[in-house]
Design a protein that fits this description.
Layout: E1 5-11, H1 18-26, E2 33-39, H2 46-51, E3 58-62, H3 69-77, E4 84-87, E5 93-94, H4 98-109, E6 118-126, H5 134-138, E7 149-151, H6 153-160, E8 173-176, H7 177-183, H8 195-204, E9 209-220, H9 226-236, H10 243-258, H11 263-286, H12 292-306, H13 308-311, H14 314-325, H15 328-349
Parallel strand pairs: 1-2, 1-4, 2-3, 6-9
Antiparallel strand pairs: 4-8, 5-9, 6-8, 7-9
Helix pairs in contact: 6-8, 8-10, 10-11, 11-12, 11-14, 12-14
Length: 350
């Protein structure tokens, strides 16, 4: 039997964006899917939008209580009936062949003794007009190189610790429902902002992962999105942890419970966490709500605490000095140049 995929879409006041998401699912060449829409007590008429589409595979559920965004993700995912579960936010769009490619990878694995845990694809980042938003997404981080095909738990763990922004987004990730049931749901609210990163770590601890190196999702990059707002709050607040640090430590804990994690892997986690602090150090200087030089120094000290070898590398040492000493205007110009270079790298690799 071909793979059956449940698309779940948690919404709150997304009536303007939702039709595009629904239509991108209806346009799929793979037709063994369902779409579950969980309305987080919206004040706009989401029900009327859904009612416009007469397809029994589309189900609408309006909750009677309004909850946090991650909790609405989880309770909507729990409505899924099929063996594979994939998030699609209201402002994102699947390419017509997305589910077919994912189902093909799942079906090819069906006879193997070890259960597949996750299949994911690359994606495109776009703005509200459909134009490339790579320059916003990549910023000063290069695209993360990922080999297509099958990765075991240790291999994918290594991928996730690489220095760069991943070419996928959570909307292009299909997770086996048994993994979600055994591991406690789609997102873990206690992880916070980077719960999607933790999901990639956690799911891979349960079995092999297949990566498809083709952009099959358009992911919307919006300044008013919840993650943008929470990133600003993280910079402006007193949380000494970076969001990705929390996700990595949670992911490491799951891997340690399911397999032997080497000391080299633990050091790699510490090095990756150190890099997130160095990145936030520069953000304190150039992004809104940053804490200036004082915030930069705090994160540089944290990076040294996690991995002195990482902090003292020639590139990172120069990066740290620039984050503290360079004029803001110079940092902004360097950031724009790096963003342009990394966009070109991302486009060349496609």
């Amino acid at each position: 039997m071909p793979a059956r995929i449940s698309i779940f879409t948690p919404v709150y006041n997304d009536a303007d964006w939702l039709p595009g998401a629904i239509e991108s699912v209806l346009a799929q060449t793979h037709d063994d899917w369902e779409m579950v829409i969980g309305d987080n007590l919206s004040t706009d008429d989401v029900a009327a939008v859904v009612a416009h589409y007469d397809d029994p595979r589309i189900r609408y559920h309006r909750w009677q209580t309004h909850v946090r965004i991650d909790e609405n993700f989880n309770r909507t995912a729990a409505l899924a009936r099929h063996e594979w579960v994939q998030l699609l936010c209201a402002d994102d769009r699947l390419h017509p062949g997305c589910l077919a490619r994912i189902a093909k990878a799942i079906d090819a694995w069906a006879e193997d003794a070890e259960r597949l845990s996750m299949v994911l694809t690359a994606c495109r980042r776009v703005d509200e007009q459909g134009r490339s938003a790579d320059h916003i997404w990549y910023g000063s981080k290069r695209p993360l190189p990922v080999s297509p095909g099958v990765h075991d738990s240790a291999s994918w763990f290594k991928v996730l610790l690489g220095d760069g922004n991943p070419p996928w987004n959570v909307g292009s990730v299909a997770v086996a429902r048994w993994v979600l049931e055994e591991s406690g749901g789609f997102f873990r609210p206690e992880v916070g902002l980077s719960a999607d990163v933790e999901l990639s770590f956690r799911a891979s601890a349960y079995g092999p992962v297949v990566y498809i190196d083709e952009p099959l999702l358009d992911f919307m990059v919006r300044s008013d999105a919840d993650n943008s707002i929470r990133l600003l709050q993280n910079r402006s607040g007193d949380d000494e942890r970076t969001p990705v640090e929390v996700a990595m430590l949670a992911g490491l804990n799951v891997h340690r419970h399911r397999r032997d994690v080497s000391s080299r892997e633990r050091r790699a986690v510490h090095a990756a966490i150190a890099r997130t602090h160095l990145q936030r150090a520069a953000q304190h200087r150039v992004l809104d709500a940053g804490k200036g030089r004082a915030g930069a120094w705090r994160d540089i000290r944290a990076a040294w605490g996690w991995s002195p070898a990482t902090a003292i590398s020639p590139y990172n040492l120069a990066y740290s000095l620039a984050a503290v000493l360079a004029p803001r205007g110079l940092l902004e110009r360097v950031q724009r140049r790096l963003a342009g270079r990394h966009v070109r790298e991302a486009q060349t690799s496609r």
